[in-house]
Amino acid sequence: MPLMRHSNEVREMAGELGKYKLCVSARSADKAILKKAQDGGIVTQLFKFALEEGIIDGAIVAGPGDEPWRPRPFIATTVEELMSSSGTKYNISPQVSWIKEATRSFGLDKIGIVGTPCQMQAVRKGQLYPVGLRDVPDKIKLAIGIFCMENFSYQSVKQLVEDHAAMKMEAVKKMEIGKGKFWVYGQRGQVVQLPLKVTHKYEQPGCHVCLDYVANLADVSTGSVGSPDGWSTVFVRTRNGDDIWSKAIAAGCFETKPIEQVKPGLELVTKLATEKITKNQKTVEERAKFGVNKGLRNPYLGPK
Amino acid sequence: MGLLSRIFGKKSASPEPKAKPAAGADVEKKAETIKKEEKPVADKITVGHVHMSGCTGCLVSLADNYGGLLTILDKYADLVYGLTLADVRHIPKMDVALVEGSVCIQDKLSVHEIKEAREKAAVVVAVGGCACYGNITRFGRGGQPNQPQHESYLPIGDLIKVDVYIPGCAPTPQLIRNVCVMAYLLLKGNKDQQELAKKYLTPLMQLADRGTEACGCDLMYDVVNQGLCMGCGSCAAACPVRAITHEYGKPNVNREMCIKCGACYAQCPRSFFNFDVIPEFEGIMDAIDAALK
Asked: For residue A23, what are the β-bridge partners?
């Protein structure tokens, strides 16, 4: 893997990291955002910039839902609403379910959306094959993807937090997956770590056929892996993403460091991406011979 | 269409003859334009809109491409058949038949016409939920004036072989547009364009192969039951009647409300996701935009 990267050159990686024009380590320049952020506050900061500049009218984010730590898709049209949705929830928020509603009930002409790699795939499929997304394809103005190894159902996270970590959901201040562990931080300062071996069986089954780790189809994708604590790794992928990112940089929204100069750097991102994709590719193949001369569906071969 | 090029292409050149009311020149000009209209544009494809039992919503969707539709008709396709749009009585030979609506099997003319469409068209596209899956007409049981005996409605795929599906109620202007552009590239494009069009249309052809039944239940049978759902929400976004909500990240279909249009399953990234097409979204969208300029 070449370590030198130049900003205006599209890197066609063999697949695992997707196409990108630029990769940096970054964090928001806004202290208030960093205080609430999961890592470098990239998503909140970039949406805030896009909202203030009129690049988007609103963003579909994972806002607070009916139960503690249960997210729901939420259309943020103000900076305050954005701020209330920051942080990773580690369970499913069906972001794409609001993408048409955003253009209808909310009257958005320029939509931002943040989501996992599979949700970015859904957005792009929706743009090329808009079966039920009338007039939506050209209204998606900023799609931010987040790195994702797998997701959990709400009930799974609840089971991990309450049964394994012995903490109440409402008492949790932050959840995090990093350094090979699932971390649960309590409001009173207590910290519980669970080995990922424990969390694996609770993963959402649909994640096991996913062949994307770093949201290859987003305009900009980001995640903690590869960067030091408090920073995020950022891939700028599309022409549109590049345009918005450069404007945000010019406006002083982010502090950045070349990805080659941070530890653990792209090497770890590539390693994890390869691991995920290899493992899941194997799952896809095994599904084909799951029964006796009968298999399970493979969505990558067609709708049959 | 000659008419359209006359409207759009010649607009800037027209004021001059109006200012000069020289009768001879005017007639000459008229003759010239008529001549142009008769001259076929060699590399256009021929398209017809065949109307079965449907609400014309699919046709309205096609029309809702506005300027894009005019460009399609100007550059890529001649409309050779279409209720109210083309003054043609019988289904002519054509490259692509866009069929809207299901077939009422008690209506002899409909049965005859759908068979004729299959004979005359190289490619038959089922446009919209009714043609693909029966959609709302699945609930028809007859008894309506003035033909109360018209009670059985079948998706066209139950009577003829269908090549491409565009599900949804109504199908979106953008998907109809994309399929039109791709159909043109497939039939008239260079090698690369044909390759792309083939790849793009493949899943829609596979949907046509998959069958003539659709329901919100497909999300259960073919996605959730198969261990494929990851809770993105595409199905709920696609549903035209808001029959789908998400409970803890998985679709919950209100089956009483489902009209069986097939949009949810077709929109699901886990029904089909073609890695040889979708990751190229930026280039393909640019190409389609450029084609319609």
From this structure: A235
Question: Six-digit token pair at A294?
Answer: 């009968």
Q: Mean pLDDT lowest for which of A161-170, A190-199, B10-19?
A: B10-19
Name the residue in chain A with its Cα closest to that of B287: A128
Per residue in B235-288, pLDDT tens? 999 999 999 999 999 999 999 999 999 999 999 999 999 999 999 999 999 999
Residue B6 lies in a domain: yes
User: Residue B156: which domain range?
Assistant: 45-213+282-291
Question: Of A66-75, A209-218, B39-48, B64-73, which gets the smallest average pLDDT?
Answer: B39-48
Closest CA to A61 of A75, A46, A48, A40: A75
The distance of B126 to chain A (nearest Cα, Å) reads: 13
Helices (H), chain B: 2-9, 15-19, 23-38, 57-63, 67-71, 108-120, 129-133, 173-188, 191-210, 217-218, 234-238, 263-267, 281-291
Q: How far is the C-alpha of B118 from the C-alpha of B103, rounded, in Å?
A: 13
Query: In the CATH hierarchy, which top-level class contains the domain A152-202?
Result: alpha beta
**What confidence tier does B9 reach under pLDDT thresholds 50, 70, 90?**
very low
Say yes or no: B80 and B185 in one domain.
yes
pLDDT in tens, A180-201: 899 999 999 999 999 999 999 9
Please tell me which residue of chain B has the smallest CA distance to A121.
Answer: B269
A30 CA to chain B: closest CA distance, Å? 30
- H/E stretch holding A82: helix A79-83
Instruction: Indicate the residue of B174, B203, B272 with minimum beta-carbon distance to A130.
Output: B174
Q: Which of A137, A155, A207 sits opposite B248 (nearest CB)?
A: A155
Region B149-166: what's the mean pLDDT? 98
The terminus-to-terminus CA distance of chain B in angstroms comes to 16
Q: What are the boundaries of each domain within chain A?
A: 11-149+208-288, 152-202
Choose the closest CB to B269 out of A18, A98, A122: A122
Do A151 and B231 make contact, defined as CB atoms within 8 angstroms?
yes
Closest by CA to A244, choosing from A52, A100, A69, is: A52
Is the CB of residue A50 less than 8 Å from the CB of residue A112?
yes
Averaged pLDDT of chain A: 93
Amino acid at B44: K
For residue B86, pLDDT over 50 is answered with yes
**CATH, residue B234:** 3.30.70.20
Distance, in Å, from the CA atom of B123 to the CA atom of B17, rounded to the nearest integer, reads 44
Separation in Å, CA of B231 to nearest CA in chain A: 5
Are A68 and A170 in contact by the 8 Å Cβ rule? The answer is: yes
Option in B168, B206, B264 nearest A302 (CB): B206
pLDDT tens-place string over residues A13-43: 447 999 999 999 999 999 999 998 989 999 9
Average pLDDT (B155-170) is: 98
What are residue B264's phi and psi, to 5 degrees? -60, -50
> How far apart (Å, rounded) are the C-alpha atoms in residues B228 and B2?
50
**Residues A125, B207: C-beta atoms closer than 8 Å:** no
Q: How many CB pairs under 8 A join A and B?
A: 187
Contact B172 A131 (CB under 8 A): yes
Contacts of B236 in chain A (CB under 8 A): 94, 97
Say what the alpha-carbon torsion angle A14, B179, B237, A114 is, to the nearest 10 degrees. 30
